[in-house]
């Protein structure tokens, strides 16, 4: 119970994040895309770049970061999968349009590359340039 209360307290602190003068409130999101394609290999570097260019960039043309990662996760059937992956990080305003854009990116990747899931990590942030 103490752990649960501490976790809820941490969530409350994140939601009430106050930004310093000169900083802007933003949403910080990181998505993780597995590369393994069932029965047909893996998402190639060229396929990933095409996805970045034609699916992600039109939705977040103001800027983004991508990098290769290696991770593991448990599938719905209980199988542990270890695979090379891609990570995407974007900063955006908290809006219905941005949320829809993230959901479209996730849905398109899952459909195009036969993925069970795309991991989404969303947090509040204060940014400055």
Feature tags:
129 residues; alpha+beta; Alpha-Beta Plaits; four-stranded antiparallel β-sheet; two-stranded antiparallel ribbon; 3 helices; 6 strands; disordered N terminus
Describe the model.
The protein has 129 residues and is an alpha+beta fold. It has one domain (32-127): Alpha-Beta Plaits (2-Layer Sandwich), CATH 3.30.70. The chain is built from three helices and six strands, in the order αβββαββαβ. It has helices at 2-15, 45-56, 96-112, and strands at residues 24-34, 36-37, 41-42, 65-74, 80-92, 119-127. The chain has a four-stranded antiparallel beta sheet with strand order 4-5-1-6, covered by helices on one side. A two-stranded antiparallel sheet has the order 2-3. Strand 2 (36-37) and strand 3 (41-42) form a beta hairpin. The chain starts with a helix and ends with a strand. Residues 1-15 have low confidence and may be disordered.
């Amino acid at each position: 119970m103490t752990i649960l209360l501490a976790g809820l307290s941490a969530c409350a602190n994140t939601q009430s994040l106050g930004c310093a003068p000169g900083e802007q409130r933003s949403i910080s999101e990181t998505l993780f895309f597995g590369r393994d394609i069932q029965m047909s290999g893996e998402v190639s570097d060229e396929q990933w770049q095409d996805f970045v260019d034609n699916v992600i960039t039109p939705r977040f043309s103001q800027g983004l970061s991508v990098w290769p990662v290696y991770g593991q996760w448990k599938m719905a059937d209980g199988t542990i999968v270890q695979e090379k992956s891609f990570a995407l990080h974007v900063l955006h305003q908290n809006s219905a349009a941005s949320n829809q854009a993230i959901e479209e990116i996730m849905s398109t990747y899952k459909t195009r590359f036969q993925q069970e899931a795309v991991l989404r990590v969303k947090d509040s942030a204060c940014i400055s340039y």
